[in-house]
Design goal:
Blueprint lengths: L2 E6 L3 H17 L2 E8 L3 H5 L4 H20 L10 E7 L2 H12 L1 E7 L14 H8 L4 E4 L10 E5 L7 H13 L3 E8 L8 H15 L5 E5 L3 H11 L4 E6 L13 H8 L4 E5 L3
Parallel strand pairs: 1-2, 1-4, 2-3, 4-5, 6-7, 6-9, 7-8, 9-10
Antiparallel strand pairs: 5-10
């Protein structure tokens, strides 16, 4: 991974995300691609009427001016930042930009005082998470120094999570973070005996060729278990797998992934499952 994409809408949340990217860039020598999503409607983009091109040019020039002002912030002085402006289809184009520029990570800021209460409901962040083939860090607030010492990765240890696990392990290694794996066992239809839990986990670790230890954590819901385990262990970030275009709603079952993202007080990193 040589480069990081940071979607920028000139908000305070964009600045939070940019500061995390800068922290990573300084420590690992990454280049930052600052990506502004200029939301032009389809009629304006495709129309041949004279005034539409003029409006488009005007909006692009205004965006370039705001972009230039945003990128003059003092904390950006010591890193390389390349500005990119795309029209409203940018969400599906993130992967194209990532492949073209050899990008390995997206960093986004969250909106709303209560974490991601709003951002994962038909929002830009949700669209990026659903379409991104590379890991996405969702930042909750200002973090001058993105220093992750303990990183929790939670999944159900079914074999479809192998790719996401591999990415999470590489991410923890890059940050020199302690990787804590957790399987949350809950009552009801999804309950597994201790022996069944270890059978599933051991099969997964064998396929992953990994000797990592996994904690079996009991709680009433997966969301409470992941958040509770992370709090007890002093985690600095939580990693969860996602099903790409099916989004966080298909993490484990129902809306668990969305709930974890909504209620977590620490950054959440999503890793795509190969569908």
């Amino acid at each position: 991974m040589k480069k990081i994409i940071v979607p920028v809408d000139f908000s305070q949340q964009s600045e939070y995300a940019m500061k995390v990217a800068v922290s990573l860039a300084k420590k690992h020598g990454f280049e930052i691609l600052a990506l502004h999503m200029l939301e032009l409607n389809q009629a304006m983009i495709t129309s041949t009427e004279d005034y539409h091109p003029e409006q488009t040019v005007f909006l692009i020039k205004m965006a370039e001016k705001r972009f230039d002002e945003f990128l003059k912030k003092p904390f950006l002085n010591e890193v390389k930042v390349t500005p990119i402006i795309k029209h409203y289809k940018v969400f599906s184009e993130v992967n194209e930009i990532a492949k073209e520029h050899e990008v390995g990570l997206v960093v986004m800021g969250s909106h709303g005082a209560d974490g991601l209460t709003e951002i994962f409901i038909g929002s830009n962040a949700e669209k990026v998470v659903r379409t991104s083939d590379i890991p996405v860090i969702v930042v909750k607030g200002e973090m001058e120094d993105f220093n992750i010492k303990r990183f929790v990765f939670a999944c159900d240890f079914s074999l479809e999570n192998l790719t996401a696990f591999s990415q999470a392990k590489a991410f923890a290694s890059m940050l020199s973070a302690e990787l804590n794996l957790v399987y949350v066992n809950t009552p009801g239809d999804s309950f597994l005996s201790t022996s069944d839990c270890y059978e599933r986990i051991n099969k997964f670790l064998h396929e992953a060729k990994s000797a990592e230890e996994v904690t079996i954590y009991n709680d009433y819901t997966v969301e409470k278990g992941v958040l509770g385990f992370s709090e007890v262990n002093g985690a600095d970030a939580i990693g969860i797998p996602t099903h790409g275009r099916r989004g966080l709603a298909h993490f484990f079952m129902g809306s668990i992934g969305e709930d974890i993202a909504n209620h977590s007080k620490i950054p959440v990193i999503t890793f795509k499952i190969n569908d």
